[in-house]
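Quick one: structure for this chain?
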Amino acid sequence: MSDEKNIQDPKKNKKKWITEKLIEQQNEAKIVRKIVFITALVAFLLIVAIGGGGYYYITEALKPVEENSKNTIEVTIPIGSSTTGIGQILEEKGIIRDARVFKYYVKFKNEAGFMAGDYKMNPSMTLPEIITSLKTGKVMEEVVMKITIPEGKQLKQIAGIIAEKTQQDEEAIFQQLNDRAFVKTLIEKYPDVLSDEILKENVKYPLEGYLFPATYPFSSEKPTVEEIVTVMLTKTKEVLAEFGGQMEEKNMSVHELMTMASLIEEEATEQADRDKIASVFYNRLAKGMMLQTDPTVLYAHGEHKDRVYFQDLEIDDPYNTYKIQGLPPGPIANPGVMSIQAALVPAETDDLYFIATSTGEVLFSKTLDEHNRKVNEHITNKK
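Got it. Here's what it folds into:
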């Protein structure tokens, strides 16, 4: 018995040893898992802290240095300064919070054309205000006058608005807006917006459609026509920069875009779906049909009418889309953002016709018969 017991003892000892090892390994595994968990948690918290901190830092850096400051600081931007150099100067002068954030903000917004010179700036200025100042070469001064240009206005009307606000001669303003030498200087200054297409023979007024509808503040009661137009074209450039990718996808020039958008703008009502109107125009062009849009007839006549009559359609003019194929030579008014967007992203429809009712509702049709029925119901029988 004692010999048999002695023979079995090594087995029991081995089993005990294995059990102890398993327990030891399990404990070690628990410790490892705990370490991994703690490490992952710390890493996660670190990432959150860095990300949150980075977001907070950038948000703060985009704010004015001192919102309520009234201190005027003289800033000199040397000729040939890079965006990095300008940012460093502005940070050193206390106009912006961070030169690097300024640099990437300018790059993200696709801003350019900063002008060298002496500026009087204020720590309360926002980044858009600083950029506008640097692009126009103007110091930020008290606003003493504003000019509001509504959507859908034609160059003659814009000249009238400018004349009224600045107390200048309307005819003289209109003449300067159409002076070829003046327009050529603007083409050189704004090559991303204006092209030689606006100087073609059939284009009535080169700047038609390019003076963006907006409210413009001025520090002078009588800014010059050049100052006013420069600010307006700068705004047009900023707006069009947002649509650069879409224009490239559609292989569409700025002139084509502004021309199509102006037709949409003039046909649209308060209730109208601009993208559906755009769809009709594109569908007609695709089928080789004339656009036959009444605003082009009125533009050809050079006058506004409540109704277009059959005799009006007979005018022999390159803008009369009842006589010409395709788009007119240029814009017929200044389109707003919604019309520009519609010209680039039209609705997907099979419609070829539309009419606007007396209530402002726009009715769309796929066939001429359907269109004529709606005309008789909502237009002819309402006379």
